[in-house]
From TrEMBL:
It comes from Hevea brasiliensis (Para rubber tree). Residues 7-128 form the Disease resistance protein At4g27190-like leucine-rich repeats domain. Keywords: Plant defense. The keyword tRNA processing does not apply. The keyword Manganese does not apply. Signal peptide: none annotated. Pfam families: LRR_RPS2 (PF23247). This is Disease resistance protein At4g27190-like leucine-rich repeats domain-containing protein.
Amino acid sequence: MQEGAETINNVVFPQLIVLSLRKLIKLKAFCVDNLPFKWPSLEMVNVSNCPALEYIFEKKGTSLPFKELHLSSLEGMKHIRKSPSELLHLHNLQTVKIESCRKLKVIFPASVAQGLEQLKQLDLFDCDELEAIVAQRQEGEETIDKVMFPQLIELSPRKLINLKAFCMDNLPFKFSSLEMVKVHNCPKMKTFAASDGNQSTTELKGAAGPSN
């Protein structure tokens, strides 16, 4: 922070609709001072080919109203959020597409996954270290006993050579709107998801099983 700017405690982009960061080989963070961002009109985040970026969202509270998240070729990204244990609200998120993020081991903490009530499409491709879509429950998340994606229509995990399960804790999932599952080249995946007793993957309108 420069001299004379000490009173600035956040950064606000009130009219920003699309955030697109591409081929920025030295980009490490959105702000050197780690100030919290607010973008109340944001609808899409698209980040690709930024190899030095280790996370997308800062530790401090940030307004995250966007509907689409596209991440690709982020070789250094280990977490979507800087501090994966902190609560993150993505209640408006509808589409997630993640490709070639080779150090990413999980996509969502359990508390975040529980709040993805608007998610309609989840497309994951070529993430070598990805082990699960939903992380193991942490301290403060013990009361979470299942995860519901009521609006999810399409789920596509492909070329995820270390993917073992949908959830590390094997929590029951409910996908009441799911129509299509595409699972391809996920050789370590033995169980798609634990059933809550009300739905199984055999009821889906279209499904492709694991392929090595």
